[in-house]
């Protein structure tokens, strides 16, 4: 069983399901509601664990009621939690979800208090994945452990600093806008040691190495319910599969299936069926260029 260390946020997502959004001073009745863990660190960890990896999530955990809930669910999902205690409530995302889309309000909490110096200097893992945290978290572990990075917003906040790290990484996961912000859509471009992975929504994804490029097709689903966390789930499946098989094409196939299945359910923390992902991956077309 592969061992993956993860640095990232573990938030509480409060989701209300409504037919439409109210006007100012108006009330709408919610059809249903739920609370679930969210945040890129949590999303990646839960997906990776469900695919068979031994996962340790390093994240800030507060002392509020939602903090306890998030902690309880992560432990229930089999995540090894390296909780850095912080004073305050967990970061909370309020979501009103309609059939046409959703609106979200973010309440900053302890997730934003996490600092690189809060974390251990040495890690017992096959790889470290840094999920939507600043480049400083990656820099702390340069030369100490294989590195996988999903920069997320850092692609726009600190593009030069992220780009400078690319060659030090084993894997870099970005979507098209993020890749554009980093200047990675066209050559010449820096590449990670193993692969640059660019997800492109309904156009599939690209896996780019120093020697070749893989164009990965889409795994079709009947209905998109919620795209939240699809990128985290994709990255989790890719990393887990690569550690298991050392095969980039198979990693991309399973990642395509996992990412597609993630959009068919509500919320970003997706529990995957490993056998289904492996079986359905055979349907994903991968072309080598």
From TrEMBL:
Query: Per its UniProt record, what Pfam families does this chain match?
Result: PfkB
Keyword Translocase listed? The answer is: no
Q: Which GO terms describe its biological process?
A: phosphate-containing compound metabolic process
Which residues belong to any copy of the Carbohydrate kinase PfkB domain? Answer: 1-269
Q: Which UniProt keywords apply?
A: Kinase, Transferase
An example molecular function term from Gene Ontology annotations: kinase activity
Which SUPFAM superfamilies has this protein been placed in? Ribokinase-like
> Which InterPro entries does the annotation name?
Carboh/pur_kinase_PfkB_CS, PfkB_dom, Ribo/fructo_kinase, Ribokinase-like
**Similarity comment: family membership:** Belongs to the carbohydrate kinase PfkB family.
Protein name, UniProt field: Carbohydrate kinase PfkB domain-containing protein
Q: What taxonomic lineage is listed for the species of origin?
A: Archaea, Thermoproteota, Thermoprotei, Desulfurococcales, Desulfurococcaceae
């Amino acid at each position: 069983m592969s061992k993956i260390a993860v640095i990232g946020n573990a938030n509480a997502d409060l989701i209300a399901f409504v037919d439409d959004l109210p006007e100012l001073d108006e009330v709408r009745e919610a059809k249903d509601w739920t609370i679930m863990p969210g945040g890129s660190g949590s999303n990646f960890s839960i997906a990776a664990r469900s695919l068979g990896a031994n996962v340790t999530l390093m994240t800030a955990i507060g002392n509020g009621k939602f903090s306890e809930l998030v902690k309880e669910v992560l432990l229930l999902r089999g995540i090894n939690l390296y909780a850095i205690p912080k004073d305050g409530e967990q970061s909370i995302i309020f979501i009103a979800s309609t059939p046409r889309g959703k609106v979200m309000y973010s309440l900053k909490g302890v997730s934003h208090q996490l600092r690189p110096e809060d974390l251990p200097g040495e890690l017992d893992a096959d790889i470290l994945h840094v999920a939507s945290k600043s480049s400083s978290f990656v820099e702390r572990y340069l030369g100490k452990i294989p590195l996988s990075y999903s920069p997320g917003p850092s692609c726009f906040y600190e593009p030069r600093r992220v780009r400078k790290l690319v060659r030090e990484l084993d894997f870099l996961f970005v979507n098209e806008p993020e890749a554009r912000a980093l200047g990675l859509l066209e050559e010449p471009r820096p590449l990670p040691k193993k692969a640059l992975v660019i997800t492109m929504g309904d156009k599939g994804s690209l896996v780019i190495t120093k020697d070749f490029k893989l164009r990965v097709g889409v795994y079709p689903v009947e209905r998109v319910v919620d795209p939240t966390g699809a990128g985290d789930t994709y990255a989790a499946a890719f990393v887990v599969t690569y550690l298991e098989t050392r095969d980039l094409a198979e990693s991309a196939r399973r990642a395509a299936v996992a990412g597609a299945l993630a959009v068919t359910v509500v919320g970003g923390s997706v529990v995957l069926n490993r056998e289904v992902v492996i079986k359905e991956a055979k349907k994903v077309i991968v072309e080598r260029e």
